[in-house]
Amino acid sequence: MSRSKMMLLVLSAMIVAVLVPVAPASAADKADVGDKAVTSAAVQTVIYFTSTPGSWIGQGQTLSLSGVTANRTFSLGAYTNTVRFDAGGYELAIVGPNNTLPTVGFYGNATRWPFNGGTPGFWFSAPGRGDNQVSGYFDVLQADYDANGQPSAFAVDFKQYDETSTTQWTQGAVRFNSAIPIPEPTAAAGAMLAAFALLARRPQRSK
Predict the structure, then answer these.
(1) Which residue of 32, 34, 109, 111 shows the fewest CB atoms closer than 10 Å?
(2) 93 and 113 Cβ atoms separated by less than 8 Å
């Protein structure tokens, strides 16, 4: 095995060890949100996410998107009470079990919306990219609705595993007219992700 391949394997193991919990959508997932540094509090409207290099949705990117729109669907079959946030072609859709309206609380064992049935449903998609199956969680920290039932102020953190793979994930937060701080990866985790990406792009020497 070449030295560069060996380093890739080592870095992959380090990333998994630091960033990936043993099992998805568990109480341990919720706990890892508290282990992150947070930005200073200010009212903001943004979709923020980071991701592993192998993630089909995040593709190793860390992005912060402004111009977020929020919308709630009312009585419409499997789409009933779904709350969606869109920005720059990225969308997060969330709904409670059995199509209940999302309220403040932790939603573990979430599955692919709108096929979630009795479990919490969510789906984070990218421009032209979407997973067939997902697992993970979302944590609603603020859920204010106006007189018409539409989101007026909202804060939700989430972690989505592509095709239920715990090594390929996108983790992020949506803030819509909210002052609740956004969780961000620790410096160590960010450095490992950057090192992995750089090494993966390093040109191979010809034999």
Answers:
(1) 34
(2) yes
What is the per-residue pLDDT across 93-137, written as a single tens digit (0 to 9) for each? 999 999 999 999 999 999 999 999 999 999 999 999 999 999 999
C-alpha 146/C-alpha 141 separation (Å) is 17
Q: Token match 């750089």: residue?
A: 198
In sequence order, the β-bridge partners of residue 67 are: none
